[in-house]
Amino acid sequence: MFTAGNRLKLTIFGSSHGPYIGGILDGLPAGVNIDMDYINKWLDRRRPGINSITTQRKESDRIEFISGLKEFYTDGSPLGFIFRNEDYINKHYDYIRDNPRPGHADITMYYKYGEYRNYEGGGFFSGRMTLPLVAAGSIAMHILKNINISIVSYIKSAGGFNIQNENISDEDYSYSFRTRMPDPDLDDKLYNKILEIIKDGDSLGGIIKTIAYNIPPGIGEPFFDSVEGTIAHLMFSIPGLKGIEFGAGFKLGSMSGSQANDTFYYDGDKIKTRTNNSGGILGGITNGMPLEFSVVMKPTSSIRKKQETVNLKTHQPSEIQVIGRHDPFITLRAVPVVQALTGFAILDLIMSDSSQKKWDIFNRGDGN
Amino acid sequence: MFTAGNRLKLTIFGSSHGPYIGGILDGLPAGVNIDMDYINKWLDRRRPGINSITTQRKESDRIEFISGLKEFYTDGSPLGFIFRNEDYINKHYDYIRDNPRPGHADITMYYKYGEYRNYEGGGFFSGRMTLPLVAAGSIAMHILKNINISIVSYIKSAGGFNIQNENISDEDYSYSFRTRMPDPDLDDKLYNKILEIIKDGDSLGGIIKTIAYNIPPGIGEPFFDSVEGTIAHLMFSIPGLKGIEFGAGFKLGSMSGSQANDTFYYDGDKIKTRTNNSGGILGGITNGMPLEFSVVMKPTSSIRKKQETVNLKTHQPSEIQVIGRHDPFITLRAVPVVQALTGFAILDLIMSDSSQKKWDIFNRGDGN
Amino acid sequence: MFTAGNRLKLTIFGSSHGPYIGGILDGLPAGVNIDMDYINKWLDRRRPGINSITTQRKESDRIEFISGLKEFYTDGSPLGFIFRNEDYINKHYDYIRDNPRPGHADITMYYKYGEYRNYEGGGFFSGRMTLPLVAAGSIAMHILKNINISIVSYIKSAGGFNIQNENISDEDYSYSFRTRMPDPDLDDKLYNKILEIIKDGDSLGGIIKTIAYNIPPGIGEPFFDSVEGTIAHLMFSIPGLKGIEFGAGFKLGSMSGSQANDTFYYDGDKIKTRTNNSGGILGGITNGMPLEFSVVMKPTSSIRKKQETVNLKTHQPSEIQVIGRHDPFITLRAVPVVQALTGFAILDLIMSDSSQKKWDIFNRGDGN
Amino acid sequence: MFTAGNRLKLTIFGSSHGPYIGGILDGLPAGVNIDMDYINKWLDRRRPGINSITTQRKESDRIEFISGLKEFYTDGSPLGFIFRNEDYINKHYDYIRDNPRPGHADITMYYKYGEYRNYEGGGFFSGRMTLPLVAAGSIAMHILKNINISIVSYIKSAGGFNIQNENISDEDYSYSFRTRMPDPDLDDKLYNKILEIIKDGDSLGGIIKTIAYNIPPGIGEPFFDSVEGTIAHLMFSIPGLKGIEFGAGFKLGSMSGSQANDTFYYDGDKIKTRTNNSGGILGGITNGMPLEFSVVMKPTSSIRKKQETVNLKTHQPSEIQVIGRHDPFITLRAVPVVQALTGFAILDLIMSDSSQKKWDIFNRGDGN
């Protein structure tokens, strides 16, 4: 089903080459202020054609609210919003119907939907489906500011370059770098690497790091609705995302307990840990330290290089070169998607807290 | 909430030092044969005290069905089952109530549940809560055999040792090795390493690899209920699991598209891919290749070494040495949990398939 | 939340005086033919301004699909559809903000949403919100025809008139009567009664009977997801609906078991019952006899007669006369809503059947 | 599925002639006091063998908690509880396997579960399955007392007798009458009528009225999760319940708007209505007046009188006389089930309130 969330529910609909893509966000109480500029800032950060190393597809990606708003305040009914698809060309896709592109969902939609598959532009498997994720997520991020939660995402590793300094606390900072790798020197190097890759007709993968600050301790549920399980479930909806690790992640596999355990101390009245190998989560529940995780994005599947494939009609070997306007480094545009979706996850976890505590998270001045 | 699954729902209950741990498995049709020997085989594989490198807590871990069965066939109502806790000692836990153990959920249950927290033996955050996961998962694995799906899990990396040969297709094979690392030489080395670690009063983490064979192509849903999202959501319910990657996983972050894309060819009538970097999943949906993923388990948090902590009553620095009977290498006992839970995930995905195809998965001879 | 259904999910959004009302229908497989004429026939039957005894608000109520369709076949992603609100006037509603109309949700939205309440035209409590119910329901009714299920609804009682002959099996029949009371004589009498009521500035309630034919036996689940519970849950979403009874309903309260029990006999190979006091449902599950139930609609709350109310600002007694264009007998327009919603309920029950049987309900020629 | 509720979830399991019947109640925060005496009082009120006009099956119906409790306080994990079936005799049921009892689910479980049906004593369609409903409901009723909500249920109509005075506000009052019809004269008359019915080998139906006081205004959601829809959905899980009406209910079908509308006035600071035809609910949401509804129970299906049936093996006409220990007037024992289940519904509605207001409902002294 196309719905996620527990007390805050997001349903998405539409497809790459249909008339619209949109979302329905249900669960917000009445009286929540919706800041259009803030939403648009995040939509712009995933918009195609941002700079010379992203796809040149032209989409304005303006959000249009179709329900749930009265003069920029929620009315307690579902927020509905749509985006008009503007710049799509269906004729590119005749060939790929029968010659599935390696790395894409062409082959699996053939298995699942048969002759009724919506294959143009990847149909509803397209990266454009992340538009409503960013919209809903940025609404959540804006609400989380009421209790001082902030979320940072940036590219930590790509093209053989790895960032060292991870002390970033400004949610906007990484967007001042063309590649979203927030280091002047590495940004230049990665930028040039991507230009090379474009020339080669190839693409690159990457790793995105996310840190969320000031989440109250005690958020998340034991077992199935843990912070990790909730975030992972949502993150894997992002096309091309193939792994997630929290805190020290896969390094924990070669560590000992005395290295891995984060020991406690009091910093004033607050309990902190000397290290944060757990990524701010113990037993699936936040411990008050920054929430940290990384996700890996596979390289964009669409490449101009010739690749082996099969012809689904003739059952013969075939070849394909994916032409059209594609991102050589889709990880760059996934950064705001991961960041916003983290906001959605955290707001839903707070709203769904089984301890039924109350924060002034909706800033309605009444403790609710 | 303590429930997972879509059309096949598992609810778990109980705690480490309460009278029982149990589960309710709802959604199976009537007439499914329940094989007690098969379930017990899997329960035995996660049982404490298997050998000298696991905890010496004594639990028979016999499953008792309390509902849903008529003479070893399901009756269409929820399967209820319980395990009696036998060998628990509450007095160990007086100290940890006020001096949280690093790496454990002691501190987060303090935040979430306050004075009503169930802290003895980790309460309902205990690894014993994986018992109903193994029970439900082994029931699912048994059903999946009706359409020839088999699932293999083993330890791929731990203590600095990494297994190379990954061509394992027998679900029982890894259990012929004391460490579940299915290589005679590495098994010895890891075994000795663990003996050392026990002497040091420390613990080890590890990485578990899982491969599922013969899943029909077309299983899994686009976006939120993808194969990856569904499996990840469930896996993070396993205490101590901190990361998951599908196919080539985090390596994809430094690969190019031409390296990462799995190209297609016909093997007879079947479409296969030359490589399997996607782990058998494209667009969140199975493509007919083996489903492959790895998870990382952090080192057991309970160690005898002295660690820094805080006293929650005095607000002063404190120290703790975790005594009692603990697994130095809990990853070993997590292997059957991961394996069985994969079975649960796959059966639920098949039962929930939105294309509403029918397989003879329940083997009732009527195509249902 | 604004979502109903189990495997077939409907989310509705919008409000009476916002730009749109719409719905998202998720769960249909790919390849289901969507018949626009059929949907429009049902939408027309609940449209305002049908005849002189309905409201004169002018709405074309044309459905616009915004997602999920490829050339009139579903693509397996959510069907999104919207209706543009055309003929709304906000100025009527200044007075009622502070002087709640008796019988309406004005007062309860004041309690629940406070100053952010969407009160114009009843906001999202408006009867216009039944538009997406009819749309989704008519899609379901069309699918149910593939296995010969048909559903009939008509007015059984209103204005002191009660229909006797209940042998109606044509889903269109009641719409050949102006009042939806399918008896030429009673139709005339009720019609004249309504004209009187209009003159008086008053309104009428009524009872709607529904019969569904050819539902396979075995549909519905024990306990919470019974046929009765599922249908009742959905029906009470219809504004103004205050009661539901199945089979002999409230008459069962004064019957004896020997009168009430429906005894069995074989009619050829088919087991039938001599009477149908159970309304075709035993233990929450269909028994192969026609499914029968009645619902009661309260009289339209909006009346021109002067009524006592309170002023929410001054906390003083107040009066109100509800002017504007209102249905004197809203039950008439509720008939297709009840009928279509029954279709939605039955299709969802069939799709969610725990016995996992398969019917050729989607008519895709492959037994699925 | 065997689960109901939104933020407060109840899963039931077991069957009449299996070893146990039980429930899992998930969603309560930690620190809620569980009052065993209070629960047992309600269990006793539905227990068989209460007096000479109920079945003589002997069941102690003692609740045993198997999880979620620490010294009578919830620990935040699911409350699990079981009841041991003590007095069941399987041999009675050989005949009914092939000769379905009119009015029972014997025939529908044959359709749904085929040869694997659990038919002894009605299996999981038995009225014994209401035991966990009473347990969970009485826990909810006890919690609701923290904000002064009280719930009353009694028999309003049965055997041709109808109660007039409805001013009952004491939740225990109706249990001082043998028939639960709270009028000394009618209680006698109905009691004698039931004795006659027993002699005849027949049974009676009845109507149960419920009133809930002091529910805060603003509870319940628009559309699908309305107060009416939520309560109706739960009530239809009670075996034999065939109709529900709120406020004036089916009488609204023959009323005019000026009669039906409940007009408003201020009683001090509180807005009240002159009448309560809406049953305390407008737009699906509570308006602060008492919540009122009635349900009808069909006569007990098991009667000693000879009835026509069919033989499922021979496909021939057959006859049946239901011997064994049956309630002639099951409505009597349904009273506490309806009452407790109302408590469950109201608590879930309050916990799920989309406006996210907070009441001190769990009485933990911190506004939560």
From TrEMBL, chains A, B, C, D:
Cofactor note: Reduced FMN (FMNH(2)).
CDD domains in UniProt: Chorismate_synthase
UniProt GO molecular function: chorismate synthase activity; FMN binding
Reactions performed catalytically: 5-O-(1-carboxyvinyl)-3-phosphoshikimate = chorismate + phosphate
SUPFAM superfamilies: Chorismate synthase, AroC
EC number annotated for this UniProt entry: 4.2.3.5
Gene3D superfamilies: Chorismate synthase AroC
Residues given in the record as NADP(+) binding sites: R46
Pathway of action: Metabolic intermediate biosynthesis; chorismate biosynthesis; chorismate from D-erythrose 4-phosphate and phosphoenolpyruvate: step 7/7
Any one annotated GO CC term: cytosol
Enzyme class: lyase
Cofactor: FMNH2
Function: This reaction introduces a second double bond into the aromatic ring system.
Family membership noted in the UniProt record: Belongs to the chorismate synthase family.
Matching HAMAP family: Chorismate_synth
Protein name: Chorismate synthase
Primary gene name: aroC
